[in-house]
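Hi there,

I know you've been waiting on this one. I reran it after we fixed the sequence typo, so this is the corrected version. Both the input and the resulting structure follow.
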Amino acid sequence: MKFVDEATIEVIAGKGGNGVSSFRREKFIPKGGPNGGDGGRGGSIYAIADRNINTLIDYRYARLHRAKNGENGRGADQYGAAAADIVLRVPVGTSIFDADTGEQLFDLDRHEEQVVLAAGGAGGLGNLHFKSSTNRAPRQWTPGKEGEQRKLRLELKVLADVGLLGMPNAGKSTLISKISNARPKIADYPFTTLHPHLGVVRTSESHSFVVADIPGLIEGASEGAGLGHLFLRHLSRTRVLLHLVDISSQDPDIDPVEQAAANARAIVEELRLYDPVLYQKPRWLVLNKLDMVANPEDVKQRLCKKLDWTGPVFGISALSGDGTQELIWRLQEWLDAEREKAQVEQDKADGTHIEPDPRFDASRQDA
């Protein structure tokens, strides 16, 4: 299936039905009084997040979504029927923007989360509502209200815990295929990855996390060069970025450490130019293709010194799998700790957090 992460649609809610002016006319009942019913409500258009959908391709071709109008009221106290609503199912992680103003309206990041894209118009009132002691034969009625109409831009940002970042051919696709169930295309030429891939890494029966692989970045990506800039938004929801750096060199005249340092600086700069918030995300350095260098430990130390890198650093060979187990275990530990902290913060915000009582600390060993 073709991966589509952006689409523009137009939604038009239904108009409410008109009220009606009618009077009860039956034999032997000369003064039956008003009995005009109300119009029905126009159909609304909703969006629901569905975790079973992973692309916006349906909305690339079906761009206009129009709900039906409500029925008009009738005599004999008959109200018009409300029109059926339209439900648009979108992938979890879809952000919805007003296409004209650019304002973000909704961010659907939970399964079955539902929002109103365009509300249907209310039905008009029949003359039944206007009778009174001084107006016993009202002929007033009101028309139904128009439904809302919007032009919207849908933008998908995939939900993943870990994002892979790096130059083309840094080994991102090989790594995700080695540690997860994802099977992206792998080849020895740049830009083999043309759209994001998601893979689930399972470290035990009850522990797992999701990794996102996007097309490789090149210098100038923040200004539109290459393919990676089209998909950088997918890294915005991740908790940590793995910056893969290829430390091998096919040219014996080129120092692999110098080349790797230049590539790493270029990627970090593109990240900073694209989105300062994304630039501030936790980032781990992963040195790939260690099996192709003579002295891996020396290369690792020299590269960290050149980059002034003090954060987590791992040396791996994505092709053979060397070092990948330690990497995913460390990632799982870190993610579990982050999730626990996020849950505590959420509980505090909701007012449901309970601080543990030190008097009942099970870890204490009282004599």
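Quick highlight: The chain has two domains: 6-156, 162-350.

Best,
R. S.
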